[in-house]
Hints:
Layout: E1 2-7, H1 21-35, E2 38-43, E3 47-53, E4 59-66, E5 72-75, E6 79-84, H2 85-93, E7 102-107, E8 113-119, E9 124-130, E10 148-153, H3 154-157, H4 159-162, E11 170-176, E12 179-186, E13 189-195, E14 204-207, E15 211-216, H5 217-223, E16 232-237, E17 243-248, E18 253-259
Antiparallel strand pairs: 1-5, 1-7, 2-3, 2-6, 3-4, 4-18, 7-8, 8-9, 10-14, 10-16, 11-12, 11-15, 12-13, 16-17, 17-18
Helix pairs in contact: 1-2
Amino acid sequence: MFELKIQASESDSSSKFNAEALNLLKKAIEVVHELVEDADIQITDKGINIQALDNIHVCLINIFLSKNLFFSYRCDKNLVLGIKLKVLNKIMKTIKVSKNDVFELNCEDDGNVLSLKYESSRYVLSNDFKLYKFDIESYTLPSMDYTASITFNLEDFMLLSKSVGTFDEFIVFDAKKDSFTFNQVSDVGKSSLVLKPNDENGVVVNVSDPICKEISMKYINIMSKLQGLSDKVSIHIGENHPIFFEFSMEEYGYIRFYVAAKKDDH
């Protein structure tokens, strides 16, 4: 039996993420739906795992939501829930947990439906989602050697989609010894965001060898949907490796993207 409950309560202070647990679950489903139509949601005694590779094999997303994120969580045995995301995402977007509202997901060990229940002071909403056997391939990523990395505020990362990335379909990541630059150059203009190590502002830059990579803005725009779910973002770049983005919720989970660069050198 799998059971998950999210319940907003002013008296509950067991988790700083508890009040935002539903928002995190909704955003996780939304960003996966931006990449694929179908997904296998893996349920374990540690939490929820979702992995998906887009159909052009450019971006892999890996999500883990710890059981500690939720008001209550039960998993009697590991399950793989094959879900069509379009309807699930649409319904999840309509749900908001207010004080004393309750959100629940549950599924029998050998069941063929995932049941959703949302109970507010005004009504009770119930939905059953058919489960499928997609046989989606899972990926184990090898250890990678990155020559450049940066960790900085998620608020500043949002500038990539709101401002820096408005001139072209691709964006350049240029890492040097003492700085990390994001830039675009096109026929209509150019833009750049330069970040340097700054302990006070939480900017950490580590570059062993200068490196320059270019990726599609499509994936940056998808990541921008995670605004408010994490304080920091970490980006790691290496030769012959996808660019690795990590949005960490500390012990409550993470959302990771691995995005193939357009070309090795800009």
